[in-house]
Design goal:
The complex is a heterodimer. In chain A, 0% of the residues lie in helices and 50% in strands. Chain A has no helices and 11 strands. In chain A, the strands form 2 sheets. In chain A, strands 2, 4, 5, 6, 9, 10 and 11 form a 7-stranded mixed sheet that branches. A 4-stranded antiparallel sheet of chain A has the order 1-3-8-7, with no helix packed on it. The radius of gyration of chain A is 13 Å and the shape is globular. By secondary structure, chain B is mostly beta strands. Helices cover 4% and strands 46% of the residues of chain B. Chain B is built from 1 helix and 9 strands, in the order E-E-H-E-E-E-E-E-E-E. In chain B, the strands form 2 sheets. In chain B, strands 1, 3, 4, 7, 8 and 9 form a 6-stranded mixed sheet that branches. Chain B has a 3-stranded antiparallel sheet with strand order 2-6-5, with no helix packed on it. The relative contact order of chain B is 0.35. Classes of the chains: A mainly beta, B mainly beta. At the A-B interface, strand 5 of A face strand 7 and strand 8 of B.
């Protein structure tokens, strides 16, 4: 069955960096676009970024453009999100999801807390 | 990239039908039919209910139906059940950006 498992979350100070990973299994990873979506505590969902099959094209929400970088390793069935210059407002649960127009499968999320 | 507008809450009695609206601008929806709806129970990941406005993934109950008219998309839940109590989010893809709605809490009375 399809599984997406995020890792790498944690507590980081403002201005710091963190790298999230998402391990995919149960489907042909290289056949799908992949996305990162976040949810602030008690609030709604916010699209962050998505990447195409071969890493040729990447897209970002304005709120993270220039600070976050999405990447993937199809040989290792893995998706990544490098987050730099983190801000307090980046505090959220970050979900890895399969797709880009609609997300058919989601991971359970990784909590990122940005606080001094 | 402002969020799509959804009502904060909608409620209904078991067996009733309810409709959740999702309003955006022409730039949010454009001519795209890439509108999707998600259900999220507390502490859980969102679950895809409909995509391409009105299509349902395999395994999703036909009690959930999506539609769109102009710059407003809608999700109708018919035959409301206790397990439908959850948060619901709409999402639009308008190349190359995506935007979610603010979410609607559905309460089953």
């Amino acid at each position: 069955q399809v599984q997406l498992v995020e890792s790498g979350g944690g507590l980081v100070k403002p201005g710091g960096s963190l790298r999230l990973s998402c391990a995919a299994s149960g489907f042909i990873f290289s056949d799908y676009y992949m996305s990162w979506i976040r949810q602030t505590p008690g609030k709604g969902l916010e699209w962050v970024s998505y990447i195409d099959y071969t890493s040729t094209s990447t897209y970002y929400a304005d709120s993270v453009k220039g600070r976050f970088t999405i990447s993937r390793d199809n040989a290792k069935n893995s998706l990544f999100l490098q987050m730099n210059s983190l801000r307090v407002e980046d505090t959220a649960v970050y979900f890895c999801a399969r797709g880009y127009k609609a997300d058919s499968y989601w991971g359970q999320g990784a909590l990122v807390t940005v606080s001094s | 990239q402002s969020a799509l507008t959804q009502p904060a809450s909608v409620s209904g009695s078991p067996g009733q039908s309810i409709t959740i609206s999702c309003t955006g601008t022409s730039s949010d929806f454009g001519t795209s039919n890439s509108v999707s709806w998600y259900q999220q129970h507390p502490g859980k990941a969102p679950k895809l209910l409909t995509y391409n406005v009105s299509q349902r993934p395999s395994g999703v109950s036909d009690r959930f139906s999506g539609s769109k008219s102009g710059n407003t998309a809608s999700l109708t839940i018919s035959g409301l059940q206790a397990e439908d109590e959850a948060d619901y989010y709409c999402n639009s893809y308008a190349t190359p950006n995506r935007v979610f709605g603010g979410g609607t809490k559905v309460t089953v009375l």
